[in-house]
Amino acid sequence: MAAPGTIQIFVPLKVRKKNGRPKILPPDDYLPSEDHTQDPHILRAIGRAWAWRRRMEAGEFGTVRDLAIAVNLAERHVSRQLRLAYLAPEVLKRLVFGREVSAVTVMQLSECAGLPWPDQAGVVFGARN
């Protein structure tokens, strides 16, 4: 029993093993909050694009085709994702550090990377500049 004046909180979680490691699973009826959560696919794609950019700038790969072969992905996909490394600093700051929710998908975000930097924030975040 708990000592007087203490509060016990029970959180209904399940622990399952996945790949030999314990993984905590939320309850079946749990719905994540939609408020101020960034799409993990966007964050992962931005991180991957920056890693690829660094590898190309370091001279590890001469062309996008060489990079695509090395990472075992289609050249078109790699070139589209690589554009995310050239987003405006303002957009990157709001997406990655501020975790602001974007109004676009990863595909639309990569297309937006070709726009001038002042125009990107309006497209990515909609009317919420």
UniProtKB/TrEMBL annotation:
- Gene3D superfamilies xref list: 1.10.10.2830
Check the record and name the SUPFAM superfamilies matching this protein: KorB DNA-binding domain-like
- The name under which this protein is listed is Phage-related protein
What species is given as this protein's source?
A: Yoonia vestfoldensis SKA53
